[in-house]
Amino acid sequence: MKRTPHLLAIQSHVVFGHAGNGAAVFPMQRVGVNVWPLNTVQFSNHTQYGQWTGEVLAPAQIPALVEGIAAIGELGNCDAVLSGYLGSAEQGRAILSGVARIKAANPKAIYLCDPVMGHPEKGCIVPAEVSSFLLEEAVAVADVLCPNQLELDSFCDRRPTSLEDCVVMARSLLARGPKAVLVKHLVYPGRGADDFEMLLVTAQGSWHLRRPLLAFPRQPVGVGDLTSGLFLARLLLGDSWLAAFEFAAAAVHEVLLETQACASYELELVRAQDRIVHPRVRFEAQLLGY
Ligand SMILES: Nc1ncnc2c1ncn2[C@@H]1O[C@H](COP(=O)(O)OP(=O)(O)O)[C@@H](O)[C@H]1O
Ligand SMILES: Cc1ncc(COP(=O)(O)O)c(C=O)c1O
Ligand SMILES: [Mg+2]
């Protein structure tokens, strides 16, 4: 029997609704991965409500919890680390030390970094020091990087002029360490008005994927966290980069369709659980010639 992969997921927890681990853990479990959730913050709700209670958890918890898992002899069973929303740069550094420790115990383990930098206009609030940490330190350690367009722009310190330019920008990150860059949402001049576009860039090539752009009265939150979580889960289950990319796009689209049908602001992950595992839609990514 094939072994079930194990994944350490280090990101935010919200008590109400879905963002960070609250958006990613259940779907990753549902597709068949053992998840070890480690929370960076515990907030009442995601920050795009404009108000929340709760706190950033002490950075010392991260090495202490990793040490606890090492002490029971389980650290070598960790196949991947995922990091997302961070409450402080110090937490970020603790994650990089944890990644080094896990890779020493299991050299095949991979680190996927979703560089959540915040989006003040949208109300996604992240401390500024976290962005500097992601730009300067995390990128060099990550095996896989999953930025949105704003985050890709921050890494490259400029905006793209075209789709080809988005590829150039994503590819430039490969030179800084990651083996794959998944851009979860492309924004560039001249893009299709009815499409939601994504990009996958590896040393083997660049793939572009379009899915329908859905209308929402308020943009749902946690979509990025869900995307990177499902992408990593499917990689661990043995998918190729391309198959995991296409799967994540389809499963996330299913969740958004369910969310739209329920006129819900929060992602309808529980209602969509079967559709996550068996998406009815399929989006084929196109290999780009540049
Ligand atoms: N198919 C879709 N139609 C409409 N909006 C979408 C679709 N998929 C994702 N979104 C929205 O697009 C936005 C993507 O946000 P962005 O800041 O680029 O990435 P992230 O989700 O990591 O924050 C989110 O607000 C999400 O709700
Ligand atoms: C607590 C928390 N975690 C994570 C996120 C990231 O969500 P997304 O997947 O939309 O990037 C947000 C965004 O506001 C948030 O408030
Ligand atoms: Mg995000």
TrEMBL record:
Pfam families for the chain: Phos_pyr_kin
Pathway membership: Cofactor metabolism; pyridoxal 5'-phosphate salvage; pyridoxal 5'-phosphate from pyridoxal: step 1/1
Any one GO cellular component localisation term in the record: cytosol
One of the protein's GO biological processes: pyridoxal 5'-phosphate salvage
Record-listed substrate binding positions: S12, T47, Q48, D225
Enzyme class: transferase
Cofactor annotation: Mg(2+)
Reaction(s) catalysed (UniProt annotation): pyridoxal + ATP = pyridoxal 5'-phosphate + ADP + H(+)
Annotated ranges, domain Pyridoxamine kinase/Phosphomethylpyrimidine kinase: 70-257
Domain of life of the organism encoding this protein: Bacteria
Keyword set, alphabetical order: ATP-binding, Kinase, Magnesium, Nucleotide-binding, Transferase
GO molecular function: ATP binding; magnesium ion binding; pyridoxal kinase activity
Positions that bind ATP: D114, E151, K184, R211, P212, L213, L214
Family the entry assigns: Belongs to the pyridoxine kinase family. PdxY subfamily.
Function: Pyridoxal kinase involved in the salvage pathway of pyridoxal 5'-phosphate (PLP). Catalyzes the phosphorylation of pyridoxal to PLP.
Subunit-structure text: Homodimer.
The name this protein goes by in its record: Pyridoxal kinase PdxY
Species, as recorded: Pseudomonas auratipiscis
